[in-house]
Specification:
Order of helices and strands: EHEHEEHEH
CATH architecture: 3-Layer(aba) Sandwich
Strand order of the largest sheet: 1-5-4-2-3
Radius of gyration: 12 Å
CATH topology: Oxidized Rhodanese, domain 1
Structural class: alpha/beta
CATH superfamily: Rhodanese-like domain
CATH class: Alpha Beta
Strand content: 15-25%
Number of domains: 1
Largest sheet: 5 strands, parallel
Number of strands: 5
Shape: globular
Length: about 110
């Protein structure tokens, strides 16, 4: 069992509008420099095990990356530690952009 849920770009967009969530971009610095989903925090995949404790809250936790593979690894790791309400953006920023949603510069 993977312990997390896959969500589509439109589902993430709705979640962002209707509930508090923790949105985490696990891409590398050079990828993030091209833009992020609004409201996301940057935590490279390699740092997820080190910073795991900072991801503990009651809010839904959504990971994303370029295509959804690295973020699935992050989601699986965090879910394996007992964190509930963990999601992976299926297709990553590729799917987000293809759905017509915008990006913002890393702040």
């Amino acid at each position: 069992m993977q312990g997390y849920n896959e969500i589509e770009a439109n589902e993430l967009f709705d979640m962002m509008a209707n509930e508090k969530l923790l949105l985490v971009d696990v891409r590398n610095d050079d990828e993030v420099a091209r833009g992020m989903i609004s409201g996301a925090q940057h935590l490279p995949l390699a740092m997820v095990p080190v910073k795991f404790e900072s991801l503990n809250s009651d809010q839904a936790l959504v990971f994303y990356c370029h295509s959804g593979i690295r973020s699935a690894q992050a989601a699986a790791f965090v879910a394996s530690k007992g964190r509930r309400q963990v999601f992976n953006l299926r297709g990553g920023v590729l799917a987000w952009g293809k759905a017509g949603y915008s990006f913002q510069p890393k702040g």
